[in-house]
Specification:
Blueprint: H1 13-19, E1 24-29, H2 48-58, E2 62-65, H3 105-114, H4 125-139, H5 147-155, H6 157-173, H7 182-185, H8 189-198, H9 200-226, E3 230-235, H10 244-248, E4 257-261, E5 271-272, H11 280-285, H12 289-298, E6 304-307, E7 316-320, E8 333-335, H13 342-356, E9 360-363, H14 372-380, E10 384-387, E11 408-411, H15 420-427, E12 430-432, H16 433-442, H17 447-457, E13 467-469, H18 475-483, H19 491-500, H20 503-511, H21 516-523, H22 529-540, E14 546-550, H23 551-555, H24 559-567, H25 591-595, H26 599-610
């Protein structure tokens, strides 16, 4: 039994004392991916109650939600137009407070009919459909003297007033704030006051919607507390360039640059996200007021929060906005550039955030991680994130259960990765074709010579989605022969080979799958319930204090669901790529069906046996 009492000496000791220094398990859920029978077009805030019930059944005690913030044109939850406002598409119309819905029964039926949720992708047109109906309802509502509404307005003016103005201006001009008329773009006080007087009803409508979202989230929080289930929110580190936050607080943002990630073995060209990086001096000189305010509001809804892009606390990969989009993150640099100040930079921000909220933070410390990151997480008592497929020893075998960081949340996959089934089918034992070609180009190989090398080293017949599968006889000698270079000159290619060759065999060894016939089938890319079960049992028995799996990973223990996920991708997002598949996946089972699955008893048994109760 692992003794987590060392957390008493960390900077988050009081939070751990409150929640208990013990192992827990949980589920990660994108609200847009789930449905109940009452939902209209998309998962709604009251639907989280069903997830709470499922956790009760299965013994899980943490629900991790993806960001629920108001989204922009691309509906990407990490590119929100506000770090405070919640997205109106998640409102349950039937659960509105202090309104008479009788005159709108036909409208609600029509909305449900238009967005019946029968597809396997989110139809984000539902957002405008809901907002249009909410506008009609709002105009018939009587709010004068409504104490709860007035208290909400008064207590949240620090972000709500500017957000509501921003939304009303965007509606009027159908443009981002950088294309507002100059007096509004530059926030001329007289012009804004005049606009408010002329459009007071529209501005207040956005405040009313936020109040309704607030009430529904508070109701879910209360329900989860009664069931002893912890809610973990997601507080994105960055925010959209076209956001109320940037419009109001330009002194905090460097609009000449955009953020991203440097190239690595998973993303050959790096990543260019588009959100502006911070002007750290401006943030620090304000006493980190912006971050304090974000947490102040989030703490009304959550017990814990996930720090997205935690490594950005120390430094952010920045790309000049004039850099062509096609170069991705290749030509960026870290800001600040001085590695010697990274640790101090991150600690200052963390200290301010801990002072601002009693929530327990957890860190997404993936990507290119600075050396100081792990040290800081340990000092502060903040769990990092250990993803199974990326946890490897120096000999490239997979890390065993007891090799996981005690202070981490272990998981099988993330919302930015493929599921374990997809990884097993298409990625395990392969290298990224884009990355391989870029390394060849760096060595001066022509396109023709590169194709020849790929043909020699890789099995093209079994390479899919530009993931190159090594030939069984490739070997280090084969690599040097193909390139006509020494081992030293081929060092980066050999490193890729050692990282990926034989990955499937090593993974089956990790899971203890020894049966010859089963191994033979699995090595062909097939998956089965035994493979899924052993994999989940493994991750649940790691030394990590938390183990949190995506709902679709848990559901793979159901044979029918496993067959579905083999036929269709249920991946949530592919980072650095803008397409119609990202942030649109809908699970094939509604929440009522999930609550009645026979496999829930098996999940409960796995959780109990792992000691995460």
């Amino acid at each position: 039994m692992i003794d987590y009492s060392f957390l008493k000496n960390s900077k988050t000791a009081e939070r751990w004392e409150k929640f208990g220094m013990r192992r827990r398990s949980g589920v990660a859920v994108p609200l847009f991916s789930i449905r109940s029978k009452k939902s209209i077009g998309i998962g709604e805030i009251p639907d989280i109650r069903h997830v709470v019930k499922w956790c009760e059944q299965t013994g899980n005690t943490i629900i991790q939600l993806l960001p629920l913030n108001d989204t922009g044109y691309d509906f990407a939850p990490y590119n929100s137009v506000s770090s405070f406002a919640l997205d109106p598409m998640y409102i349950s119309v039937q659960s509105l407070k202090d309104v008479n819905l009788n005159p709108f029964k036909k409208d609600i039926r029509e909305l449900r009919s238009n967005y019946d949720g029968g597809t396997d992708k989110v139809d984000y047109a539902v957002k405008q459909g809901k907002v249009d109906l909410l506008w009609k309802i709002y105009k018939r509502s009587y709010l004068k003297g409504n104490r709860r509404y007035e208290n909400f307005i008064n207590e949240n003016g620090y972000w709500l007033n500017d957000y509501a103005l921003f939304r009303a201006l965007k509606h009027k001009y159908n443009a981002g704030w950088e294309n507002f008329p100059e007096e509004f773009r530059e926030r001329n006080e007289d012009a804004l006051n005049a606009f408010f007087k002329e459009n007071e009803l529209k501005v207040d409508f956005h405040k009313w919607m936020q109040w309704q979202l607030f009430e529904q989230m508070k109701g879910v929080k209360k329900y989860a507390e009664e069931k002893n289930i912890l809610l973990m929110g997601d507080v994105p580190y960055l925010v959209s360039r076209d956001s109320a936050d940037v419009w109001v607080n330009r002194k905090y943002f460097d609009l000449g640059k955009c953020s991203g990630a440097p190239p690595d073995m998973y993303f050959a060209a790096g990543q260019r996200w588009g959100m502006p990086p911070y002007k750290r001096d401006g943030i620090e000189n304000s006493g980190y007021a912006y971050f304090r305010d974000k947490l102040k509001y989030a703490s009304l809804f959550y017990d814990m929060y996930r720090i997205d892009h935690f490594v950005g606390f120390f430094r952010v990969w920045t790309i000049e906005t004039k850099e062509p989009d096609g170069t991705g993150g290749l030509n960026g640099k870290f800001d600040p550039a001085d590695e010697n100040i990274w640790e101090e930079t991150g600690k200052k921000l963390l200290d301010a955030m801990l002072e601002a909220s009693e929530m327990l933070p957890c860190a997404e410390d993936l990507g290119t991680v600075p050396d100081c990151s792990g040290k800081v997480l340990w000092e502060y008592g903040i769990p990092g994130m250990d993803v199974q497929r990326w946890k490897k020893e120096n000999d490239m075998s997979f890390v065993k259960n007891d090799g996981y960081r005690w202070l981490s949340a272990s998981t099988v996959s993330t919302h930015d990765s493929s599921s374990v089934v997809e990884w097993w089918h298409n990625e395990a034992g392969t290298v990224d074709g884009i990355l391989f070609r870029r390394l060849c180009a760096k060595k001066g190989l022509s396109a023709e010579k590169t194709d020849s090398v790929i043909s020699y080293l890789f099995d093209s017949e079994h390479s899919y989605y530009d993931r190159l599968l090594w030939r069984a006889n490739a070997g280090i000698e084969g690599i040097t022969r193909a390139f006509g270079m020494s081992e030293n000159e081929c060092g980066d290619i050999i490193a890729l080979y050692r990282e990926s060759f034989g990955e499937k065999e090593k993974f089956l060894d990790l899971l203890g799958i020894e049966d010859t016939e089963e191994r033979a089938l699995l090595l062909k890319g097939k998956s089965n319930l035994d493979f899924i079960r052993k994999n989940i049992e493994f991750i649940m028995n790691t030394s990590s204090v938390f183990s949190i799996l995506l709902l679709q990973e848990w559901l793979c223990l159901d044979e029918n669901f496993l067959r579905k996920i083999e036929e269709k991708s249920y991946r949530i997002n592919f980072p650095g790529v803008v397409n119609d598949a990202n942030w649109t996946v809908v699970l094939p089972y509604n929440l009522e069906k999930i609550l009645n699955l026979d496999v829930n008893g098996e999940i409960s048994g796995i959780v109990m046996k792992s000691g995460r109760v």
